[in-house]
Amino acid sequence: MNAPECPECAAPVSIDADARVSEIVECLDCRSELEISSVTPPSLTLAPEVEEDWGE
To answer: Is residue 40 a contact partner of residue 24, using CB atoms and an 8 Å limit?
Structure first.
């Protein structure tokens, strides 16, 4: 399986063979958090930023 590219820095990012859509992985080059958007073919997008709610 070809490694998909990081959408932030274009470095190849390895994902496990049993990876699932919506799983979060990290680019080892730029440390961006990435979301698996497709496994066949493998594709990544930047993970959405989750803000703290703090019960407000």
So the answer is: no
pLDDT of residue 49: 82
Q: What's 25's domain CATH number? A: 2.20.28.160
CB 9 within 8 Å of CB 28 = no
Q: DSSP string covering 3-32, please?
A: PPBPTTT--B----TT--TT-EEE-TTT--
Domain count, the chain: 1
Q: What's the pLDDT score for residue 26? A: 97
